[in-house]
Specification:
254 residues, alpha/beta, 6-stranded antiparallel barrel, 7 helices, 24% helix
């Protein structure tokens, strides 16, 4: 159990909660967060150095209850789970869509701290929903913006912006987290340009340890075998960007 220190609003729909504890975790790993009496759900760790932090979007009963909690209230956290990102190469392109920037924020800081040059392509529906733009710039990343409505930066999808950046600059490795269709599109860009890739995938998770089968993906479990996968893994996923399991275990189209 951890005590909440503060809640801060990052965007109109996104919050960060800071906790009075620390956790040894690689960027990209996740934790199962328990709001007593409400629900337990998986969350990316957005701050792991010093003070533990979780950045989340209010999309269900559990996150709605979490957003209403005050300092000194307690939540349960178990983890970290899964595989995180690893630094490969010196010239990196990091692409985050929406709350996909949550695990990429600490990775950008870590990669730059280890001497890598990082270009961050941050995408959102509108300028107000851009996550960790200032944080990425402060870390030393070269930041490019894509918004669906054109309210800031490139008007269009993050995949379109990434394609332009790759053609213009070339990179050693592409890192991604966001909607699965975005990840699938970025994989095609990386494959076409001969660039290595690592991506964090988001699936429904109930247990976090590979037992419940909710996050099954072509014979693997996103919680246990991921959530960060290599380009070799991504190439083997026939369901990538096409379908997933819903909360009842039924396959549905993306």
């Amino acid at each position: 159990m951890f005590t909440i220190l503060e809640q801060s609003r990052e965007t109109p729909t996104t919050w960060t909660v800071k906790i009075d504890g620390s956790m040894t975790a690689a960027p990209g790993q996740f934790a199962m967060v328990w709001v007593p009496g409400v629900d337990e759900f998986p969350m990316s760790l957005s701050y792991t150095e010093g003070q533990l932090g979780i950045t989340y979007q209010m999309i269900g009963e559990g996150t709605k209850a979490l957003s209403k909690m005050s300092p000194r209230e307690a939540i349960g956290i178990r983890g970290p789970y899964g595989n995180g990102f690893s630094i490969r190469g010196k010239k990196l392109l990091v692409v985050g869509g929406g709350t996909g920037m949550a695990p990429l924020g600490p990775f950008i800081e870590q990669a730059i701290g280890h001497g890598a040059t990082v270009t961050a392509a941050i995408g959102a529906k509108t300028a107000a929903e851009l996550l960790f733009e200032a944080r990425s710039r402060k870390a030393g990343a070269d930041v490019s913006i894509a918004t669906d409505d054109g309210t800031k930066g490139f008007k269009g999808l993050a995949t379109e912006l990434a394609s332009r950046l790759v053609e213009r600059n070339g990179y050693d490795t592409l890192y991604a987290c966001g909607p699965e269709k975005m990840v699938a599109g970025l994989f095609q860009i990386a494959k076409r340009n001969g660039i290595a890739m690592q991506a964090s995938l988001e699936r429904i998770m109930k247990c976090g340890i590979g037992i419940c089968d909710s996050c099954a993906l072509d014979g693997k479990h996103v919680c246990r075998d991921g959530p960060v996968f290599s380009d070799k893994d991504l190439a083997s996923f026939e369901q990538l960007g096409k379908s997933r399991l819903d909360p009842t275990g039924r396959k549905v189209k993306l």
